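Exercise 3.2. Students should predict the tertiary structure of the chain below and write it as C-alpha cells, then compare their answer with the key that follows.

Predict this chain's 3D structure.
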Amino acid sequence: MARGYAGAMARVYGAVEHTVTVAAVEDLTPHYRRITFDAPELFTGEPFEPAAWVRL
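Answer key:
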C-alpha cells in the first residue's frame, strides 16, 4: 500500500493489503490496458458492495 498521507488515510478507513497474481495483460488500445488478476482471498469473508473498488 502507498506510504505517506494517502496510505495513512487508507489505513484509517480500514484498507487491508491483499496479494494478487497477474493472470493476463491485454492492450486494447494505446491508452487502455486490461489486467486480469487472481486473488482468491480478496472478497472472502468481506461483504461485497456495488461501489467497492480495488486500488492497484
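Discussion points: The chain has a mean pLDDT of 80. The helical segments are 4-12.
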